[in-house]
Amino acid sequence: MAKKQHKRKTVQELEQPVVKLDVDYSAVDKEPKKERPYGRAYLGARSAMPEEQLFEFAEYRPQDAERTGYSNYSYWKSVWQNFVRNKPAIIMSVVFILLFIFTFVAESLSQYDVATLRQDNQSIFLLPSSEHWFGTTQAGKDYWVITWYATRVSLALAGLVAVGQIIAGTVIGLVWGYVRKLDRFFTELYNLIDNIPTIIYMTLIALMVGQSLGIMAVTMIAFGWLGTARNVRNLVFMYRDREYNLASRCLGTRLWRVLFKNIFPYLISVIVLRLTLAIPGTIAYETTLSYLGLISEEYSLGILLRNARDSFLRYPHMLIFPAVIVSIITITFYLVGNAFSDACDPRNHV
Amino acid sequence: MSQANVQAVDFDARARQVLSQTPLLSAKDLEVTFSLRGNKLTAIRGASLDLYEGETLAIVGESGSGKSVFTKCFVGMLDKNGSITGGSIMYQGEDLAQFTEKDWLRIRGRKIAMVTQDPMTSLNPLKSIGKQIQESVELHQGIKGKEAKAEVIRILKAVGIPEPERRYKQYPHEFSGGMRQRVVIAIAVACRPQILICDEPTTALDVTIQAQILDLIRRLQKEQNMTIIYITHDLGVVANVADRVAVMYGGQVIEIGMANEVFFDPKHPYTWALLSALPQLGVKGEKLPAIDGTPPNLFNKIKGDAFAPRNRYALNIDYIEEPPMYEVTATHNVKAWLRDPRAPKVEQPKAIERLSELSKPTGTDPNAYHPHLDPNRETLLQVKDLQVTFGSGRKKFVAVNDVNFEIYKGETFALVGESGSGKTTIGRAIVRINPITKGEILFKGERISGRISKEMDTKVIRSLQMIFQDPMASLNERAKVDYIVSEGLINYHLYKNEHDRQDKVQKALQEVGLLTEFSSRFPHEFSGGQRQRIGIARSLIMQPEFIVADEPISALDVSIRAQVLNLLNELKKQRGLTYLFIAHDLSVVRFISDRIAVIHKGQIVELAEAEELFAHPLHPYTKALLSAVPNPNPYVERVKQLLVYDPSVHDYSVDKPVWSEIKTDHFVYGNQKELDGYAAELGL
Amino acid sequence: MLRYCIKRLLQSLITVLLIVSIVFLLMRLLPTDYYFREDELMKFTDEQKNERLEAEGLLDPPLVQLGNFYRNMIQFQVTKGKSVVRAYALDQYIGMKLKGEEIPVAKGQKTQWAFNLGVSRRVSAGQPVQKVIAEKVGMSMKIGLTSLAISLVIGVVLGVMQARRKDGILDRVGIGYTVFVNAVPHLVSYSLLLILGNKVFGLPAIYKARDPVNSLILPVVCLALGSTAGYMLWMRRYMVDELNKDYIRLAKLKGMSTTAVMFRHVLKNAFVPLAQYLPYSIVFTVGGSLLVESFFSIPGMGPMLSTAIPRYDLNLVQAIVMFYAILGVLGVFLGDLLMCLIDPRISLVRKGESR
Hints:
Chain B contains 23 helices and 25 strands.
């Protein structure tokens, strides 16, 4: 090798002969050499080199060349790092988690129990006090236990509906996007449903089937998959004919494996975004439906807000407690969803 | 039709001219830093450059070399997160590096204008192109309304756009890529700038269009007396345009000199490597002297010479201290320790000497085996009357029509054409990704197109594989290399147990020259060349006999192309593979292939043995394509006659064209009259 | 262009027919009691009910009823005073005319062509439903258009300002506003506004017919609240998107100042995607806002459905659904049409693309 030929030559010696240096490429490529210290340790060793060695050929190692452009970039690590940088989202998440845990213990802290609350005309619209921490309702019932119970109902509903919408949306979107023959059908179906405000469908279902929370949940799923499905479909369209999927086709990969291994991982960020936004969406929607009288549930945050409408100008506590809780939940998920989606965008990665 | 061209250049005269001037623009030790979420990236690490009036200076470098960022500083167009952190750019007595946005309004466009890279996205889609040029005219020439419009029409005519009055009102989407680039150039020259920066203006265009645009820029330079900085990664383009050449690597100018000096007497090991890796300078059948590895990651701190780890001539000091600029001649400077008097003397690589002989055919290994000349040649793949259409009804588009060819076992068959010619469609039809409309494809005599049995399908998948164009898009970013490479194995369960599978993956990785430790990593950790090799490993693991290589090197950096070409040739030798090599670049194809088919608008127009095609092109399209291929020898490139193909020369109204073997193994598409003419040309 | 319009109109028509038919058929599944007014239910015997149902064809198979519904949508009516004496479906009328039969009109009776969707049985007894709807539309449009105009102007202007000084103070405040409005349920923000408006400015908490101007301020503000946030959000996003595009770089390279680039290139291009939804928004002001109008007890279109449904006024529900379906389809259609006009890339006529 080059190095051996030029051991310890002085400047004067070097002036004279012209060295023919035609590197034997095949030899370099074939012989894997022992690892030598790389990076700082190695460079440190060299900087202590006497001057005459400085102008000798260094040993050429193709492995080092392979490493010159190496980046230790990791997609999900970058996503996490970006996400953590988003202060508002992190703070709200902590607040929400505490609130979420609290909903399970809040009722046991009070002497009242939702199941045994009775109408009490003596204590109508009491302001918050040590007896009734959130005051009482128009029926004289303790508002603390009602509010926390309603919170759990709303959260459960929101979680259920959001998950249902996303699962339905993702599955339909995948099929819609990947199976060319079904594209027309789903597009027409989408247009058919999307042309009219969902609230119309909701009212029709409420009229014809019933107004229980369960029915409304199912209906919200049935009409709420559209956005996700369309989003997923567009992404599938984008990735379907990427070269790596063509490569999979060349390799004879089966459809389900292509969907699961090649396409689904690219949808995760969108799915998480949709999921986190579906929760505040559902809660907000539930309040609207409750207000319009399409949900006949005893307690949910939406129902509490509706009931507050007639009294909050005089008894603001009727509005404030559920409103604050609802706002914390919805703002948290909204911020987290957007923060996550920003973090997932490769353009924001280093 | 051939276009008038410039006479041979006299670089010495230009050098004298340069030496007698003071620089028009002078960048000194420029440093540009980008901050990306707390991380600092030093894109330009002390680059210096002088620009002289009236010259064309080409800046050449790979992606990430900083050539584009460097010149953006000259127009104050750095991205928001980037800033000039050191050095100066002196222009007309002012330091552009200190300019505020308000100061720039005096210079940008008016004095220094720029032509950007991608014509497809550079124009406002909602504004008519006339209006977009007019903005430029009104801003800088002080005329308005009708007068300005007349000027716009004059400029449109000047940049070679036919029917300028009608075109004035049209929108960008009604223009083809080449036409849009002409509009972008029109916008830039309408400012009447002193300096025009062209940032890879032809990279996104076909070679024939590229040649026309280069001609246009040269003509406009003469007419308007502009000084041009031309940024490119293509040495052939450099040879075409440049009076002087600056080579950039790792954010520095490492060699700068007159074009003849840099091409024929380069002094930097990187320039040597870049030139020797050119397929045009390779000997057919031999390995190209490739540069290992990839350009440096500028997020890391670079000590010493950035090129050192890839440099076969690296000295110990290259790892410790950055080299200073050494003067070779008054116009030629180089930043390499090898020029130090204390350093050993090294001769430049042999390949560079071949540059001066470049007008002659590429050297060929006389002992090379050409499968198609073998009397017992075996037809591996046969394409008969192939037609592929997309869409239906009014939107129906015939992508490939009436295509016939045979590929023999062991050969590399090249399919060359411009974008949209249908070459990729043919490749995809063969591996059954695209359905075909008419004709059939036979593999070893068995039909593999249309409906085939399941066993046949498995057989096709195992024997026919494809290598894709874009290494960034052809690997699943969310899967580990291990899964990507073994995908085919998993599909057909071609392994005994988990251990066996891993073993096979490792072997495949080694075979393509990757380290086995890479198998547990994700694709985004790799560079383009490495990713392309992962893609090759993925196809190889199926033990195919036939590989469709769809432009496997066109998306790669110059220094990396040779790695992949060597690998493909090596694999062919070892495994007896047969390739269908799809490309748009004839120079690459000449180096790698045995036979070449030229395709134009879905129709193969000529097919011949590689050297035969270069020596005796018959079809006017082939001739035009050959004339447009950039040649990295500036003396040859500067005097070449550019032929423009005009499809209307064919009169097929009465005499229908046929696909005919005019000479043994030389096919051409034409009608009887044309064929007679071709035969006469060949002296038959 | 015309071809495209006709094609799209036909498609839209089919969509509307499909939705109306489905709803119509679904409603036939409900108990027949809902076809009577509350007071009629109390006093009618089963036979009487059956007689009525029989007479009105409500016992026919659902598909026959659907056919009758469409046949009778346009009627030739013979009226006396305000009540309809006889009505002929369009095909009946044409049939009679073809046979040369005269339509008997007694003295004091008048004839007229009318649009017939049945009568409201419960919400406003005996009134043709289209009349019931028509009475409410004006109010909804008044609120809707006012708030749309306000939010469009404020939203677009603020969005543009946000994009110009991205990450500046105004941008941050604007983002905070959009987050709040988009995340928090409207019911909560309306309630807060109501408290503010009522306690601080003394505005009426519910609609008062005597003081329409003052009592409409809060609803308009509430309605504008959400759409302003929407326009801000999207305008800002589209502006930022456009600003990062290559053609902006080229425009700057010409030497144009940032402001000139903003006004001459970015603004229009960023507004185009917003414009697509503008017709939809305008058309839907007619439909009113369910929540706002209910919240402030405004006699508009909004609360109609939620009043009609609990009271099972089937004809009215039917008509409202049809009304909304037409609005929706029309809005989307006009949006697409507008896009064709302002975006040269969308060409409906095939121009020979020249190269």
